[in-house]
Structures are given as structure tokens and as C-alpha cells.
Design goal:
Distance between the termini: 25 Å
Number of helices: 2
Number of domains: 2
Low-confidence stretches: 1-5
Number of strands: 26
Radius of gyration: 32 Å
Strand content: 25-35%
Order of helices and strands: HEEEEEEEEEEEEEEEEEEEEEEEEEEH
Helix content: 10-25%
Structural class: alpha+beta
Mean pLDDT: 88
Length: 341
């Protein structure tokens, strides 16, 4: 439009339309940001709800939701400015964000308290380690014959924090879902203190040994010892006493050391699968570093109800605040629509 000329009606309509479209565009941005905030807070509520639902689940590890602000667009670019006569100094960048999103969901793998069950074969790892369980394998997993260490990254076995163990009909030690418990079998030799030595060269399902003669040779036909009572030592050694009161070493439960527990993929129940970002997962005998075995105890959930209830309140308020943004934006859009009537 040239100076001195009256504004034509078509030009006025165009200007008002342009202003309306720009305002509408900015209102849509605020609504999109609020919707992103609603989704993020809904995810946090889902995580909190799962924590509270599993407050009495054995070995459950609580989770927390991490937020991050979403992508930004530059309303005004920053400039460094020039140091010369007649020039202006630098200005900062002006940015507009698009709400918040969930950046990650973290799992707290801290060891929780143990609850006494009174069952001889219930056990927990009092430390960061995991029990090693899985389907039966015809071939034992080869391990270091001196230390018993084995890299479990490609063995297809599961990790577990819950040791509800029982012998099955075939004499194998299994958990309450029927997965075999892996460890080391007796070697048939004893040390200078008369303690049974383990075959550390193989990681295999733990099984009650066959009845043997005085030369430690299985008696034909092969028959497993009938175990009446059980005892699990702090190092994972499982000892069973037969009906005649004679103790027999069944095996030694192995424990897995995980480099990055948050890289594990949780399966149904309380099983974990080794993921792509888990790092080194080493099967070994129980140590102070991995945690010793506590017999007769099961690990309780580490859900912190006080923290989750407090977080739930702040999350609810955040959700309400985002719905308010949507309501206000809707009211302004309605006023813009009415302007064009």
C-alpha cells in the first residue's frame, strides 16, 4: 500500500486475516505444548501406578520417569554484534519450546530388605547380583575352570532376583515358574578341610546327585538321593540331608554380576533378559561384591510408597496445569473465530 492512499476494504481484510492466522498459529503451539505435557505426565502416572501395584511383589524394582523439554524453535536468532562506529552490540537468541517429553524411565536396582519365609529353599541375593535361570540345556556352559566365571551375554539365560526354589520330579532345582537354576556341580573331590569341591569348568542346571558306592561310582540302576531337608550356605552351596541323616552336597548356586543393570530388558514375571546395552554379564560364585546368598528369605519390593504418593500429587498438579493451558487456548481460539463473523 502506497502512502497517502486510503486503505481499500480488500487490503484491510487481508491484514486482519494475516493477523488472525499468526495468532492462531501461536495458539496452536501453546496447545501442542500442553498436549505434550499431558502425555508426559500421563506416562509418569502410569509408572507410579505400576510401582504402587507391585508394592508387595517379591524382588520388584521401582521405576522413575525422567522429563526433558522438547525441541525449540528460534523466534529471534542471536548476533555477536560488531565493534565499530555506528554498529550495535550483540543480542541473545530468543527461543520458543514445544512442551515436555519423557526422556527415559529409570529402574532403581538397589537391594531391598529381605522377608523371612521359613522355607529352607527360599533365597535372595543380598547385593547387586542376580540368580541365573532358564530352560534346560543339553550342553553345559563352559566356564573358567579356576574361577567359574563365564560371559553370559550370548547364552540365552535369564536373570532373576527371586529365589523361590524347589526340586522337581527329576531332581533338578527349579524356581516357581519351572526354570532351571544354574550353578556348579560337585566334582567328587574335597579340599584339606573335607569340603566338597565344585566343578567350576561348567555352568549347568543344579541336580540332586545319583546314589554312589564307597568309590563314588553311581549304583546301577541310577537313582537320585532322597533328600529330606535342605540348607543353602551364604556362598550358594546347596546341601541336602537324606532320610538316613547323611548330608550330600547338591551344587553351588551361581550369581551374575551385571555391568549396567538398567540395560536389562524385563520379561514377564521377575525375569530379566540381557539387552544390547547391558555390558558385561559375568556368571560366578557368590562373593561380597555380587552379594551373598541369604537362605530362608525373599527380597521385598523396593517401592517407596511415601515418595510415590508425593510424586503422584505433583504429577496430578502438573497434569491439571496442562489441561488449563488447553482450556485457555480454546477460549482464545473461539474469540478469534468470532472476530471473523
Amino acid at each position: 500500500m502506497e502512502a497517502g492512499h486510503p486503505v481499500r476494504m480488500t487490503d484491510a481484510v487481508t491484514v486482519r486475516k494475516h493477523i488472525t492466522e499468526r495468532k492462531y498459529e501461536h495458539m496452536v503451539k501453546s496447545m501442542n505444548a500442553a498436549i505434550a505435557g499431558l502425555k508426559a505426565h500421563q506416562t509418569r502416572l502410569d509408572v507410579i501406578g505400576n510401582n504402587i501395584a507391585n508394592v508387595n511383589t517379591w524382588g520388584y524394582k521401582s521405576r522413575s520417569t525422567n522429563f526433558q523439554d522438547s525441541v525449540y524453535t528460534n523466534v529471534m536468532n542471536g548476533q555477536a554484534g560488531e565493534v565499530r562506529t555506528g554498529s550495535l552490540g550483540g543480542i541473545n537468541v530468543s527461543q520458543l519450546g514445544y512442551g515436555s517429553v519423557v526422556s527415559s524411565i529409570s529402574t532403581n536396582f538397589g537391594t531391598s530388605n529381605g522377608q523371612y519365609t521359613g522355607n529352607e529353599l527360599d533365597c535372595m541375593v543380598d547385593g547387586p547380583g542376580f540368580l541365573i535361570v532358564g530352560a534346560y540345556r543339553d550342553q553345559a556352559v563352559a566356564a573358567d575352570p579356576d574361577t567359574g566365571e563365564v560371559n553370559l551375554a550370548r547364552e540365552g539365560l535369564y536373570l532373576s532376583r527371586v529365589g523361590i526354589l524347589r526340586p522337581d520330579a527329576n531332581g533338578f532345582l527349579v524356581d516357581d515358574s519351572g526354570n532351571y537354576v544354574y550353578g556348579y556341580a560337585p566334582s567328587g573331590e574335597v579340599d584339606e578341610n573335607g569340603k566338597e569341591l565344585m566343578n567350576l569348568g561348567e555352568l549347568k542346571p543344579i541336580r540332586i546327585p545319583y546314589v554312589t558306592d564307597e568309590n563314588n561310582v553311581p549304583i546301577e540302576p541310577n537313582e537320585l538321593y532322597a533328600i529330606s531337608t535342605w540348607r543353602i550356605g551364604t556362598d550358594g552351596t546347596v546341601v541336602g540331608t537324606d532320610k538316613d541323616g547323611v548330608p550330600h552336597t547338591i551344587g553351588q548356586i551361581a550369581v551374575a554380576s551385571v555391568e549396567n543393570p538398567n540395560g536389562l530388558n524385563q520379561k514377564s514375571g521377575y525375569y530379566y533378559e540381557i539387552g544390547n546395552n547391558t555390558g558385561r554379564v559375568i556368571g560366578m560364585r557368590a562373593t561380597d561384591a555380587t552379594g551373598m546368598i541369604r537362605s530362608g528369605f525373599l527380597e521385598m519390593s523396593n517401592t517407596d510408597l511415601a515418595l510415590d504418593f508425593a510424586t503422584m500429587i505433583t504429577t496430578e498438579r502438573g497434569y491439571q496445569a496442562n489441561t488449563k493451558i488447553i482450556t485457555v487456548t480454546d477460549e482464545i481460539l473461539e474469540q478469534l473465530v468470532n472476530m471473523k463473523r
